[in-house]
Fold this sequence. Notes:
401 residues; Rossmann fold; formyl-coa transferase, domain 3; 2 domains; six-stranded parallel beta sheet; CoA-Trfase_fam_III
Amino acid sequence: MNTRKPPLDGVKVLDLTRVLAGPWCTQNLADLGADIIKVERPETGDDTRAWGPPFLKDEQGKNTTEAAYYLSTNRNKRSIAIDIASPKGSALVRELAKSCDIFIENFKVGGLKKYGLDYESLKAINPKLIYCSITGFGQTGSMAQDPGYDFIIQGMGGLMSITGERDDLPGGGPQKAGVAVTDLMTGMYATVAILGALHERHRSGLGQYLDIALLDSHVALLANQNLNYMTSGNIPPRYGNAHLNIVPYQVFPANDGHLIVAVGNDKQYRDFCQAINHPELAQDERFITNPSRLAHRDLLVGILTDILKTDTRDNWLNKLNAAKVPCGPINNIKQVFDMPQVQAREMWQTLPHPTAGTVPTVASPMRFSDTPIQYKKHPPLLGEHTDEILKEFNLQDFLNN
C-alpha cells in the first residue's frame, strides 16, 4: 500500500476569494492535498452559488442552492461563514491566519486594510505567511483601483483582437472565448506563484507577498502572438479558425459538418495531399513550402474547401488519421464526455453530496504516479464546516466572548 502523503498535505490555506480566478487557484491547491478553509459571507456566500440555472438538484429533483458554476471550482474545500466586516469577524480571521501557511484574497486594492487583514498586518503576527492578492490590474499603476472583469480584459488585453472571423469575411469581428480564460489563467499563475513561494520558504523560513493581476496574466497568455508583434512591428489580425503562421491549419467544411486540419510542416502537407487524393497540390510551386502557402493562403484554402466538401467529415477524418495527418472533429460537451479517451482518463468523477446524494466533478489534469489526486470533499455548503474549523483551531468560544 502506498503510504506517501499528497504533495501539499499539512499545508493550510485561508481562502478569502470568490467567483473564479481565486477559487480556481485554491481548488488546484486542494487537489494537491492542501486544507482549504473557504471564508464566506454569512447568508449569501460566494457569488457563484447563485449563478444559475443550472443548479444541482437534490434527491427529490428540486434545485439546491448550489449553481453548477460554483460546483465547478470548489471541491475538496471546507466552508466557514464569517462576517469579516464586523470586529469579531475580522479578529477571527486574524486568529485563523496565525496558524495558516497561505492567505489568498481577491478584494480591491487596499480593501482588506481597514479590517486589519492586509499583508503587513498579518505578516506581523505570522512572518511565515504567504499572502497572495489577485486583482484586475495589480497593486501598482494608474488602473490599480479599477475593478477587473474577465470579459472586459479579454477585449482590453488583446485576445478579442485575434479571436473571431476576419473582418472581410461573413461573421467577421471580435469574439470572446467560450470560457473565462483570463480568470482561469490567472488562477493557474497564482497556483504556480504560491508553489514557488512555498518552495522558497523551505530555504528562508519566511513568507512573502504575491501580486497577481488578471491583465498581466492575460497579456502573458498571448504567447506567440505577442512575439509576432514584438519582433515584426506588425499587429496580428483576426484569422477566425485559421492560423496566422501555418497553412492549412484551420476548420474546413465537409458535406455533413466540419473538421479541423492541422498541418504543421511540409511533410505533413504532402501526406495530406495524398490522403485527399490530390497529390498534384504537393508539387505546385505556390504551395510546396509553408511560406509559399502563406503567400497564397486564400487560393489554397479555396481549393481545399471545394475538395473537402465532397465527402463526409468522418470519412475524411479516417483517411487523414490513417495518413497520420493531424486532424479532429469539433465536439459539443456531451460528445467530449462520450469520447472513449476521455472516459479512459476518468475525467468524469462523482462525489457524495449531503443534499443531492452525489455531485459530478471534472478530474484534475494533474496526474501523479505515487501521490494521486484524491476527490474527497464535495463543494461545501455555505458555512458547512464553521463549527468543525472553530473547534479544530480552539476558537469555538471566540465569537461568544
